[in-house]
Amino acid sequence: MECMDTNGRARPRPPVEPAPQTFEATLVHERAIPRVSPRAELTHRPVAVPPDLAAMLLPSESLTYAAGPHPVVYARPLAAIAIIGVALAVALTYHVTVLEHGHHVSVPLLDARLRIGAWAIGGIAVLRALFSLARATAYYLGFRVMTTNRRVFEVRGFLGRRVRPLGNTAMAGSSLVQGILGRIFNYGTIVMKDATIRDMRDPIALYREMQGVANGLDGDRWAPVLRQTQMP
Prior knowledge:
By secondary structure, this protein is of the alpha+beta class. The chain contains seven helices and 13 strands. The chain has a four-stranded antiparallel β-sheet. Strand 12 and strand 13 form a beta hairpin. The longest helix has 31 residues, at 112-142. The model is unreliable at 21-34 and 36-45 (pLDDT under 50).
C-alpha cells in the first residue's frame, strides 16, 4: 500500500513491524510440605502433653506428633516362654523303647536326676523370659517419642518420668531400619549415633518428624534449626 510525500509523489508505506511480545515470568511459591499429612493426623489419636513436658515447651512451641512402641515388643519373650514350655514338656514326657531281657520296655528319656536338672534349667529359662516380658511391658507402656515444631523428646516411665531432648545432629544422621515383617506390620527401629529407638509403630511418620525438626522444618515453612549445645 502506497502513501504520498510532501511533493505529491507516491512512496511505499514502510512495513509495519509486529509489536514486541512481552513474556511475564510467574513466580510459583512452593510451600513446604507439612511433616505429618492431614491423612496421617486423622489416623492418630491426639496425645495429651504430660505436665512435666508441657512445662518444658518454649514460647510458640506446640506438640505435633507422638509415637509409642509396637506390640511386637512382646513377640520375643512370649516366643521364648512357648519354646521353653514345649521343650520342657517333651523332655519330661518323652519315652524311649529299650530291649530288656528280650522284651521291649518303654522308659522315660530322662531319669530322676536328669528330670530334676531339666526342671531347674527350665525354671531359670522361664524366669529370664518372664523378666524380659516385664521389661517389654515397661517399655511398651512407659516409652514415648514426642515431637514439637522445634524439638524432639524421649519420654520414659509411667510411675516416675524422665524426659530427654534428642540432639538435632544425631537425628539428622539417623537411619530407619525395617525388615520384611516390619514393613508388613508397620514397625521399625531408628538408629542414631548414641541411641537406638527400637520397634516403634508408624516408623516412617516418626522418622519424617525427626528429620523435619533436625533440618528446621516448622509446619509449612523452613525455620532456623534450634541448636542444642552440650556445655562441658
